[in-house]
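Checklist before submission:
- one chain only
- standard amino acids only
- sequence pasted in full

Submission:
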Amino acid sequence: MIDKNIKQGKLIVFSAPSGSGKTTIVRHLLGKENLNLEFSISATSRDKRGEEEHGKDYYFLSAKEFKNKIKTDAFLEWEEVYRDNFYGTLKTEVERIWALGKNVIFDIDVSGGLRIKRKFPEETLAIFVKPPSIDELKIRLKKRKTESEDKINMRVAKASAELATAPLFDTIIVNDDLERALVEAEEKVNNFINS
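Returned file contents:
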């Protein structure tokens, strides 16, 4: 389990279907000094893409290293997204951020977010970012121009299942107007941190 000798900050989880705008919201919140947030870097067994850096974008591990860490209970949460393609949150990452005296902010998938909420129900604010509609989500994913039509269709299909989990989160922010969503997210996080 996580080292109890470290003063624990709050855990702020943002989850959403791909293309909902959660990463944009998380980046905005990281710029607000009064919230005292530090980003939780996830571990993954997938290969680096483009300019990604180990220890900045992800902790890149081999599938074997990842599985060994699962065996030694090194993860707060983890998931095998595809065969031998793992993502997870290392306990040491949360400890690192708490040792800095900061609150942890996560940009993670729905199941990982809900696992953290279950493990730390009092310390966690779980926020679901909802797109205005599935059609709008598909338009946003196409505008990115980063994935094939098949990959976009796969993400849209997954989004329907993810949207069904929204009521399990503490709060839902509908991102139909980015400026309003940023203000709402900031207010909710600020109120939770100061409660």
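Reviewer check: DSSP finds seven helices and nine strands in the chain.
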